[in-house]
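Quick one: co-fold with iron/sulfur cluster.
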Amino acid sequence: MKEIELSRSLYTAPRIEYVLEISGENVSACYQCGKCSAGCPSYSAMDISPHSVIRLLQLGQIEQVLRTEAIWLCASCQTCKVRCPKGVDLARIMEALRQIILRENISITNPSEIAEEELNNLPQIALIANFRKMTP
Ligand code: SF4
Ligand code: SF4
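Sure, here it is.
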């Protein structure tokens, strides 16, 4: 298992504060009950659970969170918000994480790494939408 570096400075790092500023949510309020993940319709396809996204943010691990597929698979359905006993709006946090990637022009997709067969079979509109969002 990958080691996690912990320090107060990580939690107050500018990017974490940026997530909190964009989302307006308090990740510290989450006590990891898991009700958000239990009701999430996208959970089975995610690489980490919704409540783990919050936990990693609590631990200052934003770089790790920004590399997950989970933030792109969130459908913003707000089931998690409705179920959360602490009133945490996870959909807003997921959107804030996506916004950081888009605003910082972080490249998620490398067109040259897409297999020719996929290029031929995927809908062109999906490819164009992907390149607009996922490449600087
Ligand atoms: S439902 Fe709320 S308190 Fe429970 S794990 Fe999810 S975000 Fe945290
Ligand atoms: S808003 Fe996103 S994380 Fe929350 S339940 Fe819906 S798909 Fe899952």
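If it helps, The CA atoms of residues 105 and 136 lie 5 Å apart.
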